[in-house]
Amino acid sequence: MNTQVRKEAPNHDKLTCYTDYKCRLPKCVDRYNAWGRDRERAIANGTWQPLLDAEPVRRHLLRLHAEGITIYRVAALTGLTYKAVRGFTQHDYGNAAPRRYRVTREVAAKILAINTEDHTPGLVHPIGSERRFQALVTIGWPTIHVARRAGIHPSNRTSIFQASRMKATTAQRIAATYDEMRHQRPARHGVSATSIKRAKQQAADRRWPPPKYWDEVGAIDDEHFEPMYRVTRREIVAQDAHWLMTTNGLNKEAAAQRLCVDKSYIDHAFRQHPQYAPRAAA
Question: Staple 165 to which of 123, 169, 227, 268, CB 3.0 to 4.6 Å?
Fold first, then answer.
């Protein structure tokens, strides 16, 4: 089993998987090579036009929104990030990034293919909204303040994440609130120093990733992505050794050999992370 902490691609259906995450799965390599061949042919024929005017995409998104299909819903249907889709209708809150005026053919085709007849406003997975709440806590925002800004009753600020699905409109409100609050200082909005310290400590104790982490990995809405924020190699070894010993029936020496570490390393890993130590560890 692989015990190294590395940056995994949040998906395997885009060119960024190959170019940005150095993924070399056969299907990803084939996709990249096919794109390269198409590009070379188009250049030779004088038809290469990688970017298009994004105005049709912007107008289509506004029409969809008017019909009740939110930007968050479009992102879920197309596999694009919320931030990427939102960029066609408005600038990035708190940053200098302007509205997007150019778009690739692939992205334009995905968005323009959505219509109100086939896709009605629906429910989405709550993981992205929950992670946004948690990320704001890491920079000192108590969840009660986040809930109020997002138009959510404070008493519901945790229960809404316990269901398997939530309203797409609620998810979009939370995403918009996150984009605003992440660039604001809690102290300037009436949050006491004690509350800020308590919020940051809560996030640190639970190892919640901050906004910068999600900016880097780009998978805040991916329910299948497991964040590795502040997870050490020793903890990963403890997890893997636990799995080998409890699932495969290996003893500690055999598990160490499988993980290419010394038995003493597993001993240290279990001492630091006793929650993974099997009760009858050999």
Answer: 123
